[in-house]
């Protein structure tokens, strides 16, 4: 089965729900960056999209969850890019190329947005939601990896690979936030994936050098 045929076709109802969730998440993030998280209410987010607060609550349990939904949305786009890769492509190559495709589609963030996001993460509730979003990402990617690997593949291996991808994403994202750079963090994410696929040669070489310098045990 090819990746294209493995991807489920969403019905109209599901596509509308997906679009509504994305619109609410985008509005929540934009308003939080513009005003500050404490100055944004659920009602404000709902009004931006033209829905009721009750509709908002059908998709998100809090404004913090809505703000952090971009993390899951980012990985869902990488998942779809992975599903579209040629069936003959090796799994690691397909994962990396899917990430490269997504990196090329996402524009670089504004420096001011980076600063504001870093400030917002001092909010304990938002930070907790961000960690929860990163955990969700692993499940999202594991499903796509398992689909591509086929029914004979070990599902634990799919989860392990997804965990590696998720960790690379989390590390590159938080490093970017700490740096204050206005460059896109996705190239760093892609480079970490390439290092992982190659067995982390730089790290293992450094470890080997350290071991070689240690005096032999007497």
Order of helices and strands: HHHHHHHHHHH
Low-confidence stretches: 1-7
Distance between the termini: 58 Å
Tally the helices.
11
**Strand count, sense and closure of the main sheet?**
none
**CATH top level assignment of the domain at 64-204:** Mainly Alpha
Estimate the helix proportion, in percent: over 70%
Give the CATH H-level superfamily of the domain at 64-204: Tetracycline Repressor, domain 2
Shape: globular
Q: Do you know the CATH architecture of the domain at 64-204?
A: Orthogonal Bundle
Strand content: under 5%
Total count of strands: 0
Roughly how many Å is the radius of gyration? Answer: 20 Å
Brief rundown of the structure:
This protein is mainly alpha-helical.
Summarize this structure as a short list of keywords or feature phrases.
218 residues; Tetracycline Repressor, domain 2; mainly alpha; globular; DNA-binding
Question: What would you note in describing this structure?
Answer:
With 218 residues, the protein is mostly helical. The chain has helices at 3-6, 12-35, 42-49, 53-59, 63-83, 91-105, 111-120, 124-149, 155-179, 186-197, 201-213. Helix 9 packs across helix 10 (186-197). Residues 1-7 have low confidence and may be disordered. InterPro entries: Homeodomain-like_sf (IPR009057), HTH-type_TetR-like_transc_reg (IPR050109), HTH_TetR (IPR001647), MftR_C (IPR041347).
Write the layout of secondary structure elements.
Elements: H1 3-6, H2 12-35, H3 42-49, H4 53-59, H5 63-83, H6 91-105, H7 111-120, H8 124-149, H9 155-179, H10 186-197, H11 201-213
């Amino acid at each position: 089965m090819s990746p294209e045929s493995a991807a489920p076709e969403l019905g109209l109802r599901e596509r509308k729900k997906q679009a509504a969730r994305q619109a609410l998440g985008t509005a929540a993030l934009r308003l939080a960056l513009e005003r500050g998280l404490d100055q944004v209410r659920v009602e404000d987010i709902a009004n931006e999209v033209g829905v009721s607060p009750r509709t908002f609550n059908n998709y998100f349990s809090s404004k913090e969850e809505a703000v952090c939904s971009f993390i899951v949305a980012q990985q869902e786009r990488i998942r779809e890019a992975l599903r579209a890769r040629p069936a003959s492509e090796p799994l690691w190559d397909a994962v990396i190329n899917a990430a490269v495709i997504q990196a090329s589609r996402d524009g670089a963030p504004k420096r001011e947005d980076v600063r504001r996001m870093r400030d917002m993460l001092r909010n304990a509730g938002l930070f907790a939601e961000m960690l929860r979003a990163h955990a969700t990402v692993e499940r999202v990617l594991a499903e796509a990896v398992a689909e591509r690997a086929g029914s004979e593949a070990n599902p634990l291996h799919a989860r392990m690979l997804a965990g590696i991808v998720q960790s690379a994403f989390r590390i590159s994202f938080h490093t970017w936030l700490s740096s204050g750079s206005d460059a896109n963090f996705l190239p760093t994410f892609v480079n970490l994936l390439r290092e992982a696929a190659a067995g982390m040669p730089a790290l293992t070489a450094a470890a080997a050098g350290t071991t070689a310098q240690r005096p032999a045990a007497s």
